[in-house]
Amino acid sequence: MPAKPTSPLLDEGNLRDWLRQQAVHFGFDGLRITDTKLGIASEHLQAWLAEGRHGRMEYMQRHADLRSDPQLLVPGTVRVICVSMNYLSLGIDFEREWQRIANPSQAVVSVYARGRDYHKVLRNRLQEFAKAIELHIGAFGYRVFTDSAPLMEVELARKAGLGWRGKHTLLLNRESGSTFFLGEILVDVPLPIDQEEESHCGTCTSCIKVCPTQAITAPYQLDARRCISYLTIENPEAIPVEFRRAIGNRVYGCDDCQLICPWNKFAKRTELPDFAERHGLGNASLLHLWSWTEKEFEQRHEGSAIRRIGYSRWRRNLAVAMGNAMVSEDLPEADKGLMRDVLLSALPDAGPLVAEHIEWALELAASSA
Prior knowledge:
- The structure is a single chain.
- By secondary structure, this protein is of the alpha+beta class.
- It has a domain at 1-90 and 114-219 and 256-276.
- The protein has 17 helices and ten strands.
- A hairpin with a 2-residue loop joins strand 8 and strand 9 (221-222).
- Helix 15 runs parallel beside helix 17 (352-368).
């Protein structure tokens, strides 16, 4: 084991190299360091919240002050170690993803959610990484996070130089496109800071044009209330009727703005088994997923980010997708009949949330018959 420096700043170059080597050792694909000053980003957050664009994500409003200053979240913090981890597995083909979106019989689950829950994967590795740093430099104050606390992760990662903000508001970089997760270690050690990355989106507006619900209202402006990822995951209530047709067959999240992005053509693949597809989610039909009982849903999504939405929201989303499928000219009549039958069969025992969406699906199908 390398000798501990008496101060991290005595040999900045060696320490920086060591940190990046260790990041790779623990499975991360990028590491950069920034300070805690968020500047105008905090004002943009407040304006976004004031406009109600966060929808029912009340937790963002409740902890807005903490999001604006990492030092309030973890007193004593002076630096943020930002890391990225690619999640695009070897079997993912973007052209095939577009074909599945166009096939009304298929159930489209966002690519990032087809494997293990990234929260657990990153958090465990971040904790191990932090312990390795402690062994190397001595005791220091730290806390690890990955989408688990009121922290402006994307903005911190942008400041640190892990990438630039795309017009869809996601972080982009040359090596991984936007197909990576973020994690942070807040530390009380004045580590050297990295430089920001310049934007490389140019005049491209593909992500804005492709959004099915026009959730990207302008470059770098997202209205979560219109976003399919919000509507199918974060939204606990009925999906607004005006967005149901646009959802198509997307039953958990939406990847359209990432699939269309030119930078994702160059995205590096991961060989980590954690993010490999489970339970055939990359090739599942609507009828197959609808056939799962609540117990099967819980068992098959154990250790998955999908499990947290619960069985009712899962069935809500599937009912909307089947309603859209039943009015598609591309779905065989036999499959339409099967969907109609399973929805009718489930209606008597469905709770209010699922029942509303089943009734909508059946009415939509009847109106187009």
